[in-house]
Each structure stands twice: as C-alpha cells, then as structure tokens.
Amino acid sequence: MTKINWHYEQMTSGIHIALRSEKDLVSVETEFQDVSIFETRHLGKVMRIDDGIQVTTKGEHIYHEMMAHVPIIFHNHVKNVLIVGGGDGGSAREVLKHRSVEKVVMVDIDEQIIQLSRKFLPEINNGAFDDPRFELRIGDGADIISQYNDCFDLIILDAADPDGGASETLFTQSFFANCLTALKAEGILVAQGGTPYFEPYMMQSMVSRLTQAFNNPAGIYMGGCYDYFGGSHAFIWATRNGSINTLPLETLESRVTTADIQTKYYSPEAHFGAFFLSKDMREHVDQAVKCENVDTLSMPEAGDWDDYTPETSNNSYDK
After folding, report:
1. Domain interval for residue 142
2. What are the EC numbers (predicted)?
3. Is 207 a member of any domain?
C-alpha cells in the first residue's frame, strides 16, 4: 500500500485545485506561516505557504521573467531595484541577469523562507542570494519601505495574496503611498495580480489603490500561467510620471539584444503582446481605475468561501 498525499487550494468559492505529492520534502511552521515543499509529477517541486501554492519549479520562469524583464526593458536604465517578498529568489535571479543593475535590495518578513529556498529550491534562486549586488533585509516590508526616499528605479511586489497572512500589510493604501515616495522620478512598480478570471477582485482592488496612490492610472499586462489554475496571470504596474505601455517591436528587439539576457518565456514578442488586453479584461481595468471606493472591489466576505480550512487541505489515502 502506498500513501498518496494531495495538497488542495481553494481558488475562489466553488473552485478548488489539487496537486498530488510524489514525495514530501519538508513541512515546517515558521514564526509567520506554514510552509511545505513537495515533489509532483508534472510541476516539479512545489512550495506551498499556508493554504496556497506559491511557486513550482516547472512554471516559475514565466512568472519571474515577466515580472522582471518587462519593466526593466521598458525603463531601459534600471540600476536600483527593491523586491518586497520574493523569498524563493526567482525575481532576484531574473533582475540580476541585467548588467545595468547595480543593487538589488530584497525585503522578506520570514527568514526561514530564504533558508528553505536555498536548501530545497536552489534551481530557482540559482546563486542570486550570493551575488555581490544582492542585499537581504529581514522585516515587514510595510515598515521598511518607509525608510526609503527617491531610491529605486523599480519596485517589485512579489508577495503572496492578501488573504490575512504575512503579506496582508503589503496591499494597503499607505504601503503603496510609501512605494511612490521610494521610487525615483521615472520609477516603476510591478506587482503580481493573481489569475484575473478567477480573482478579478484582487486585480481590480490593486489597480484602484495604485491609481489613487500614484495619481496616475495603473494598469495590467498579462503572462501565461500553467502552474496556477486559470491560464493567465495579471501583473499590475504603476509609474510616477504617467503610464507604461507596449513599445514598438523593433525597439524591444533592440533593447533585448543589448541586454543579452537568457530567458525561456520572455521575448520581445511576448513583451509586445502582453499589453493587448481582451475586451472584458480592459473593462475590468477601466472599472478599477474609475472606482472611488476600493471596498467595492475587495475580496469576498468569509461567508462566501466554501467550508474549507487548512486542517482539511492535506488529505491522504492508501493506494
């Protein structure tokens, strides 16, 4: 008899996903959250934090490449980068591929995430933590961000969803206002916005908050996503001096050639097409930009969720 473990995550009310573990590597309770890492047949190694799938070794390159290279190639002279969250090291790995980058500061509240990533997910961080340009600060990003003024060309918010966990303080109006202060005049903020067809409230609430904090319309661009159910992933962006959009393909090709970065998913064509939104997604964004009360775009009330708790999220049976 072989014991089969299934790891479940609720995407939204009525929709759950399940990943079968071929081998459980580690399961610990840190000071801030429950963390487990396990091997799967189709998605490689998976890190699960609290009740959500955070990263897979099979598909993480799409997320991290689109998070990093789209704003860096658009900006074209990024030197100083702040990553809030990102404890697996994937975003830092991609940012540090750019020779123009002089300093990357990563802030994470949970030092054990970095330790676990070093030990069990070295293929994701791939030496980024040991790069001389990399600086790690342990603490609450909402507190640390207030220490910076006119410092960064790019801020990457690579945090878990705002569901009451360790990342909740990173999705507030005051945090985004401090991000604006920490950015340089031509600075860009990029954040993960979830799978918008199943979590439109998350994407819309972030667009609304950033629009108000930056006093400029925030927007989204899209990337593929096969390790989170839903097919597409939204990346939220906002700037101090206006909006970003797709550049001419010829310009992107020239800049990517000059950057000389090695990628698996990101390309000038992927960058160019990421900003062309479907009609329904454009309507979602426009609604959020015009929204004056962000609470109307907030996540569902607890009563809207299924009867589903972390205690029932790891089930096993004998085969």
Report:
1. 60-297
2. 2.5.1.16
3. yes
Q: Binding site annotation covers 50? A: no
Q: Give the three-state DSSP class for 222.
A: strand
pLDDT-based confidence at 225, cuts 50/70/90?
Answer: confident
**Considering the domain boundaries, does residue 159 fall inside one?**
yes
Task: For residue 237, list its beta bridge partners.
Answer: 190, 219
**Residue closest to 38 by CA, chosen among 226, 314, 230:** 314
- Annotated binding-site residue? 140: yes
- Run of H or E including 234: strand 231-239
CATH number of the domain that residue 244 is part of: 3.40.50.150
* 33 annotated binding-site participant: yes
Mean of pLDDT values over 167-171: 66
Flag whether 202 is in a domain.
yes
pTM tops 0.85: yes
Asked whether the predicted pLDDT for residue 195 surpasses 70, the reply is: yes
Q: Is 34 a catalytic residue?
A: no
- At 92, which helix (H) or strand (E)? helix 90-95
| Bridge partners for 319 per DSSP | none
- The total domain count for the chain is 1
- Spot the catalytic one: 50, 51, 158, 227: 158
